[in-house]
Amino acid sequence: MSHDAAPRGYYRDLVVTLTIKEIKVRYKRTFLGYAWSLLNPIVYAVTYWIAFKAILNVKIEGYFVFLLCGLFPWQWLSSSLQSAPGSFVTNASLIKKIAFPRHLVVLSTIITEGLHFLLCIPVLTVIMLLMGRGGPHWSWLAGIPLLLLLQGSIAFGIALAIASCNVFFRDIERLLTLVMTVLFYMTPVIFEPKMVPPMFQPILAANPFAPLIVAWRHLFIDGFVDWSSLGTAAIAAVVSLVIGALTFRQMQWKFAEAL
Amino acid sequence: MSAKGRPKREQAPERAARRGAPAIDAPAIVFDNVSKTYSMGLHMAGGIKGLILRPSEAMRRMRLVAREVLHEVSFTVGHGESVGIIGRNGVGKSTILALIAGVLRPTSGSVRVTGRVAPLLQLGAGFHPELTGRDNIVLNGVLLGMRRAEVAAKSEAIIEFAELADSIDEPIRVYSSGMVSRLGFAVAVHLEPDVLLIDESLTVGDATFQEKCIDKIAELHARGVTTLLVSHDLGSIARLCDRAMVLDARQIAFIGDPAAAVEFYRPGVAS
C-alpha cells in the first residue's frame, strides 16, 4: 500500500481507473454528454465572431476558424484548472484514510479533459474543411502528440499546485474564476500576438498558455509545427511541473490534517 | 513506511500456530517514540488575507495553536497479531491508525509498517454515488492498492460476500446504508491485506452481517493477518484481540491482555 514502493504498473492502473470514473461520472444524468465539449467552444466562437468581426471588424482572415483553433485548446486548459481546486477537497474522506498517490487524481482530470479535446479535433477538422481554411496535414502526426504532452504537463503542474494550496486556502477557488477570465484575455485566443502593442508584449511572454495557443493554431490552420513556440512551451512545462511537484510534496503530508 | 512487498503467504500456518504469542521475528508494525502534534491554526480562518496583510502574525498563530495527540508512544505489533485500541474520544486512537495507514507522518519518532495495509473505510468513503456497485468495487479496490486484474478476478467473490448480486449493477445512491457498508467491508477484506485497520466500522449492516464481519475478521486473523481494531465495543475487543492498549493523556496507559485492558479502562465492565 505504501506508494513509494508501489510497482509502476499500479500507477497506470490507478490513472486508468480514476479516468474511467471521471468520464462515467461526467455523463451520468446529462442528456447531451460529449456534445457539451463541442457546444461550449462553438457557442463562444459564434459570440466572439459577432462581437469582434461583425461589430468591431477585427482584421483577421477566417476569424471563425481562427477562434475555434484557440478556443478548443483553451477549453482543455480552463476546465482542467477550474476543477483543480476540488481535486483533493472533494476527496477528503479518501485522503484521510488511504495513502494512495493523490497527485494521480489531478493527473486523471487533466487526461479526461485532454481526451475530450482530442475527440473535438475531428469535428474541428470538418468545420475547417467546410469553411475552406486549414485541414489535416502530415505535420499533425508530430505536432498533435507533442502539443498534447506539453499542454498536459503545463496544466498538470499548475493544477497540482492549485489543488494542494486549496486544501489550506479555500480562497483560491474563488480567486481562480477571476484569474481565468483575466488570463483568457491575456492569451492570444481572440487576437493575434502581433496585434499586441510592445508595452504589453511582456505579459504575453510571461503567459505559459500563449505559446500553446499560438502553436495549436499554426498546426491546425497553417499545417506546420511551430518549433519556437514549442520550445517556449517546453520551458513553461518544466517550470510548472517543478512548481507543482514541490508544492505538492511540501503540503501532501498535511492534507489529512487540514481536510 | 518501508514496505517490502507482500510477506510470503507460506508462513501463514506457522504464524497462526503461534497465535497470541508475542512475535519474535520482524514485527509488522513498529512505533518508535512517536509523537504527533496537530497544528490547529494550519487551516486558517483568515484565509489568504491574513497571510498577506500580517504575514508574521499569521505564521506565529499557525505555530501557537498546536495540540499534541500522541507523546513519545512506542509499541510493536507482531505479524498476525490482533491488537485492540481503546480510550476516550479524541485520545489519538484514529491518529494511530492514520499513522499506520501512511496518511499522516509523525511529528517525531518513526513508524514502520511491513506489507499491504487495508483501512476499513467509514460508510461509503471512496465510493461514488453515481457509479454502479460493480464500478465502485474496481474504484475502491484500486485505490486500496489492488491491480485492475486483481480486482476483476475477485469481483465475483466480493459481490457474493456482500450479498449484493441483485443490485450490483445499480448506482450506489439507491443502496441502503447497510448495503454500502457491506460492499465496503467486502472490498477491504478481499484485498488480502497484511495489516487490517478497523476503525469503529464493525457496526455495519444488520445483526447477521455484523456476525459475518466478525467471523471474517477472525478468519483473517487466523490466517495470519495483523489486525488493529479501534472500538468502543469492549466486547468485540475482548473477543477478537490478542492484546489491547488503553490510550490516555497522549500515551499508552496500559497494554496487555484484552480483558485486563478493558478492566483497566472501565473497572467492572470486563467479565
Task: Provide structural commentary.
The complex is a heterodimer of chains A (259) and B (271). Chain A has 259 residues and is mainly alpha-helical. Chain A has one domain. Chain A has eleven helices and no strands. Chain A has helices at residues 8-27, 35-55, 63-83, 86-89, 92-95, 103-130, 140-168, 171-185, 201-206, 209-222, 227-258. In chain A, helix 10 crosses helix 11. The two termini of chain A are 21 Å apart. Helices cover 38% and strands 22% of the residues of chain B. Chain B has a domain at 77-265: P-loop containing nucleotide triphosphate hydrolases (Rossmann fold, 3-Layer(aba) Sandwich), CATH 3.40.50.300. Chain B has a six-stranded mixed beta sheet, with helices on both faces. Chain B has helices spanning 12-17, 47-53, 55-64, 93-101, 133-143, 148-162, 177-190, 207-222, 234-240, 258-265, and strands at residues 29-39, 66-77, 82-86, 108-113, 117-119, 195-199, 226-230, 243-248, 251-256. In chain B, strand 8 (243-248) and strand 9 (251-256) form a beta hairpin. With 271 residues, chain B is of the alpha/beta class. The longest helix of chain B has 16 residues, at 207-222. At the A-B interface, helix 1, helix 5, helix 8 and helix 11 of A face helix 2, strand 5 and helix 5 of B.
